[in-house]
Amino acid sequence: MKFMKLGSKPDTFESDDKFHKYAVSDLDSDVTVIVGEFTFYLHKFPLLSKSNRMQRLVSEASEENTNDITISDIPGGHKAFEICAKFCYGITVTLNAYNITAVRCAAEYLEMTEDVDRGNLIYKIEVFLNSGIFRSWKDSIIMLQTTKSLLPWSEDLKLVARCIDSVSAKILVNPETITWSYTHNRKLSGPDKIVERDENAIPKDWWVEDVCELEIDLFKKVLRAVKSSGRMNNGVISEALRYYAARWLPESIESEAASSNKHLVETVVSLLPRVNRAMSYSTCSFLLKLLKVSFLVGVDETVKEDLVDNVSLKLHEASVKDLLIHEVELVHRIVDRFVGDEKRVSEDDRYKEFVLGNGVLLSVGRLIDAYLASNRDLTLSSFVELSELIPEAARPIHDGLYKAIDTFLKEHPELTKSEKKRLCGLMDVRKLTSESSAHAAQNERLPLRVVVQVLYFEQLRANHSPVGSVAASSHSPIPPVKKAEESIVVVEEEAAKKVGLSKKSRGSKSTRSGGGGGGPQLMPSRSRRIFEKIWPGKGESNKSSEVSSGSSQSPQAKSSSSSSRRRRHSIS
């Protein structure tokens, strides 16, 4: 830390208690200066030789036949006045980054200028500021911190502006040329590691920790000065904002602290670099956490909207964990904003957005499907409405949506037949992979109609594509849905009859109703009957297996069974 010593005489200021100080001398004190709760017993000559204001105050006191002078509004209070008084006596005083702002403001108040005495206190302080304080990184930061309590004096004397100029100029220096010390103890990893670092090089964000010790309004002024230069990487600015929020925002927001935190959040949001999908500045995780806090502290709606805009543009980078900290209504709002942005792509940017946006859409589709599968607090309406927001292009495969629907059915066994139909209507079974189709075909939570569709389209897919993949089937003709629907009605009627008979014969033993699910007794025969209705002749081999174990097959039956197996193998 830089410092400057003024004067050469030993300290002769003594006190007999906490609030009274004397300038020890062969001469008696002839002026009493009261500064707040403190009383100084001093001598007129040293004070008048350095201070224009003291000359006027002593003159006014003499006219009133008193030696008492009261100073109630001196910046820096009794401590700053004492340093100025000691300077007048020639007593050694030490100036540094911690006290120089207060002494400079007090000297201005006392009018300790060159027209009173050459080499006066204001002149000497200015020399020290330019040659010492403003050349030091940490001293500039410390001095800037002290200006807050000395407003408006520090502002009027341009001390705040000069500190900001000093700090911002050093921030913009090429890191390779930095020779001063700074604080850098952060260990970043994962999504927070947005600034590339070389272990042997000075990092681009070397200044962040020191600047983040500033009060929010001063921090804002420094960041604005840095941003206005246009020479600082937006990723580093975002890192500074993220670190500042983590440094000063509490884990939990108390009501009495909401006001100060509101100002902090609003300021941080106002400083965020404008994001776009092509450039990663603030991480989506940070933006979502900031959005959560913004609701807790009650920031203005315009600030919330600004954050929602930022989050929607970076939604493809979010995680399910990030979304789960918010109410589903807000997630719906963010997704809706994202979809709206996708639709407003300009003609000039169409190719660029297509190349970049395709991966963005897929990422958001997977994210929302995973969110739907993970949020146990969703209602049927909120589930359906959020799912329907996702564009078709974002879901070329419906495995994620199927998993979400299956999870919802598992969590809500009380759903009615119509509710299950509404839920499962979100899914296109033709977009399920073979693995998901196989699972769905045996899923007793799914309505019978959906299982029929899965089996029907999977068989048609096998006919058109030996590979049986979703990608391959996308080039095949659209399977005829009408035939499957007709078969569904027949199978549902038969299933309902079987359930009724089963209830009569077995009493209270539970069986599966025709529309809402199934039991282990119904599932094996259900799939077989479906195939018989849709593809007559395909079930012959299954029928032959129902013959009792004691009977033997005829040669014709064996031949028919073998032929049926060969035919089924050839299309599967």
TrEMBL record:
Superkingdom of source: Eukaryota
Chain intervals with Basic residues compositional bias: 500-509
Pathway: Protein modification; protein ubiquitination
Coiled coil, from the record: none
Annotated stretches, region: Disordered: 499-572
Compositionally biased tracts (Low complexity): 542-563
Record key words, sorted: Ubl conjugation pathway
Every BTB domain range: 29-97
Residue ranges constituting the NPH3 domain according to the UniProt record: 205-461
Record family assignment: Belongs to the NPH3 family.
Protein name, as recorded: BTB/POZ domain-containing protein NPY1
